[in-house]
Write the C-alpha cells for this entry.
Amino acid sequence: MGAHPKGDAQIKDNRIVQTTLGQWITHFPACLGSKVKDCFQGNLPFLFKVLSVNTALSIQAHPNRELAARLHEQFPEHYPDNNHKPEMAIALTHFQGLCGFRPLSEILGFLKSVPEFHALVGNEAAEELRRSIGDQVLTNQALKKCFTRMMNCEKKVFVDQLNMLVKRVSEEVAAGKDTSPSYGDLLLRLHSQYPGDIGCFSIYFLNHVILEPDQAMYLGANEPHAYLYGDCIECMACSDNTVRAGLTPKYIDVSTLCEMLSYSPSPASSKIFPCVQDPSDPYVYLYDPPVPDFTVMKIQVPPNVLQYSVVAVDSASILLVIQGNATATSAAALSDISLTRGTVLFVSANEGIVLHITSQSGMVMFRACCLL
C-alpha cells in the first residue's frame, strides 16, 4: 500500500480518472500536506504492508541514505532506488523474527556448544571474540571478523558442517534429548525451508525476538534481521533497497552486507519498540520511530462506541481496517464508504473522517502517516 513505482497501489473507485495512487498524488500533490510535499519532493514517503510469514523471509539489512545512493549508482539492477529503508513490524499474531546481534555471552555460548558453528568461525576469530569481553570497540571488531569468516566460508565447507549439525540435532530429538543448547527447533525448521543455506547458522549470531500482538520491532539502517513466522503490519520508508545474507534464493551480496552491518551486541528485549498512548485520544496508540518518513497509529475503538472521528493530520495517510464494520463519511469523499476487514483508505492531509460503527465488537485499524 503506497506509491512506489514497483508497487503503485490501484485505486478501486472507478469514478476517479487516475488508476493508481502515484498518478493521483502527481495530479493533486497538496494531498500530501505542505510539509510532507516539500520535505519529500512531492512523494508519499512511506510504504505500508501486511505480511503473513509462513516460510522465513531472507536475512537482510537495509542501507542508510549514503550507502543506498552509492549502491544504486554502482549496481542499479540489484539496488533499484537511492533511498534508505528503515522499517517497523507490528505483530498482529504471535510473531518471530531475528534482529540484531545477540549479547556476547550468548554467541560465545553457542561457539562452545555448537562445534559445527565454531568450525565455520574458526579458532582464531572465536578466541579474539572471547578476549574482547569488556571492550566495546574490540568486541565490535571481533564480531565483524567472526560473522564475515562464517559468511565467506566455501560452500562445501558450510554445507558439510550444516549437514553434520542437522544430523546430530535430529538424532538428539529422536532420542528425546534437550536440543536447546544448539537452538535445535529453530535450526531444523529453517533447514527444512532452506536446506544447505548459510543463513541457518545466523541463529547463533542474531537475537531470536518473539513479539506478541501489538508489540513492535524497529529496524534501522544496517540492522541485520529476518522475519521467521507470523502476521504483522509493516511500515517503511518508500524504498526497495535490501542487502541479503541468506535464507533466500535471491541475490546475496556478502561483501556489502558484512561491511555495512551494525556489530553492536544487545539483548532480544532491547529490540522491542514501545508504543505510547496518544494524549489527545484514548483509542490511539502511536508507534513513532526515530526517522521522519513514517509513523503508525493503532486505532482501537471499543464495542460501546458507535461514532468515532478519525482526526485530520497534516499528512496524507493510509488507513487499514483489521477488524469491524462501519460507514465512513467525509466532506472530501464522493459518497459514503463502507468499511470492513481489509478495506484500505487513502486519506488526504487535513481531511477528517467520521465512522458510524455497525459491528458489535468495535473496530481495530492501523494508520500510516508522516508526522513532521
Summary: The chain has a mean pLDDT of 95.
